Amino acid sequence: MEGKSAVRFTLGKQSSLAPDWHQKDSGAEQEELEEIDPGVRLMYSANEGNLDAIRELLDSGIDVNFRDIDNRTALHVAACQGNADVVALLLDKGAQVDTRDRWGSTPLADAIYYKNHDVIKLLEKRGAKPLMAPMHVNHAREVPEYEINPAELDFTNSKEITKGTFRIASWRGIQVAVKRLGEDVISDEEKVKAFRDELALLQKIRHPNVVQFLGAVTQSSPMMIVTEYLPKGDLCAYMKGKGALKTGTAVRFALDIARGLNYLHENKPPIIHRDLEPSNILRDDSGHLKVADFGVSKLLTVKEDKPLSCLDTSCRYVAPEVFKNEEYDTKVDVFSFALILQEMIEGCPPFSAKQEDEVPKSYAAKERPPFRAPTKHYSHGLKELIQECWNENPAKRPTFRQIITRLESIYNSIGHKRRWKVRPLKCFQNLEAMLKKDLSLSGRSRSSRSTNRG
């Protein structure tokens, strides 16, 4: 039984795709078919356009509205494939026209996306209506400048970047990261407001150390935010692979983060990130870092309707004033920055032995992660800078402009130290070469004199 369920799970993950039977004989095909969950077989049959198999499965009692792990039904699959006969059969058997998959897309939205006009007519005749986004405007002149036609976003061979939120897509010849807003956003005013706020922030941001906003889909559903795609991944994954970073690398990375945040904080009005953690800092092709994900960011002038919770952001990097529901400002990002800088040097997250929800209590009790790395890794005032940045009193924490000045000085000191180590070595190498040359010349001279005597 264990083997069967494992097979079903594996195939269920690909339920809108046909199994790879090209190199199997009909006996193997039949045997594998019997191993697949009947609901998943219905999805496969819809994908293949096999009307007889669909009828047989539905007549045996399989639910026509069976959903796979992506919440897709056979009608979604048939709408994507543009098979009007399969769509008509499924509708006659009671398929629901307005079911939404995990991305909030309906069969009609899929048919519109793939321009399957016969299927569109069938679905509309059965009462399917196009999804209207909450930001939809009535006049073309009101469509925002950043609006992207969803038909331009190609999700073929798309990969998930983060569970259920970001995917890679192709747009106008380049790879982009797409944040798709699910079904719950349409009916949740609070989430629609958060989406509007995020767009308002993203339009303001242009900096080499901040991920670039490219556009959005707001006039149809699902709504999407499109940003540049950075294939090297995030700082969290990088540190998992590398462990503790060399001090020079940690300081260079810290400068990238500080420059991005300084830009946000010096915006008019200032932008607070509020969710600064290694997984929200991405690496570009040149190895530099960019601050990303402004889902819970806010303009300093905007008053909070409700306090930020650990459901919104990672508790491990949150400043104590946020946890205690006190008023706060840009200095919450400085606190988070200190923890990230120390993590790069220590090679493990702050208070890694504690459960995530316990960590803010430690910060509120004025505890800070211990410095365990050798003292030399915190040279040139680096330890003191970290301690200032996570000061209990936000007013005593430095600004990012001040942090940048300090980090540049530390980085230059580390660089000079490295050069002083190299120079004597080069001198010795040169001296050794000169000695070898002298010895060689001396040897030739002796040899020449011996020859003359002979």
What is the total number of structural domains?
3
* Beta strand %: 5-15%
Poorly predicted runs of 5 or more residues: 1-24, 301-309
Percent helix, as a range, is 40-55%
The general outline is elongated
Structural class call reads alpha+beta
Largest sheet: 5 strands, antiparallel
| Mean pLDDT over the residues | 81
Please give the CATH class of the largest domain.
Answer: Mainly Alpha
Name of the CATH superfamily of the largest domain: Transferase(Phosphotransferase) domain 1
**Rg of Cα set:** 30 Å
What is the CATH topology assignment of the largest domain?
A: Transferase(Phosphotransferase), domain 1
Short description:
The protein is of the alpha+beta class. The chain contains 17 helices and nine strands.
Structural summary, described in words:
The chain is built from 17 helices and nine strands. The chain has 454 residues and is of the alpha+beta class. It has three domains: 38-126, Alpha Horseshoe (Serine Threonine Protein Phosphatase 5, Tetratricopeptide repeat); 132-229, Phosphorylase Kinase, domain 1 (2-Layer Sandwich), CATH 3.30.200.20; 232-420, Transferase(Phosphotransferase), domain 1 (Orthogonal Bundle), CATH 1.10.510. It has a five-stranded antiparallel sheet, with no helix packed on it. α3 (38-48) packs parallel to α5. The radius of gyration is 30 Å and the shape is elongated.
What is the strand and helix layout of this fold?
Blueprint: H1 2-12, H2 26-35, H3 38-48, H4 51-59, H5 74-81, H6 84-92, H7 107-113, H8 117-125, E1 153-154, E2 166-171, E3 174-180, H9 183-187, H10 189-202, E4 213-217, E5 224-228, H11 235-242, H12 247-265, E6 271-272, E7 281-283, E8 289-291, E9 298-299, H13 320-323, H14 331-346, H15 359-364, H16 382-389, H17 400-453
Antiparallel strand pairs: 1-2, 2-3, 3-5, 4-5, 6-9, 7-8
Protein name: Protein kinase domain-containing protein
GO molecular function: ATP binding; protein serine/threonine kinase activity
Pfam family, one: PK_Tyr_Ser-Thr
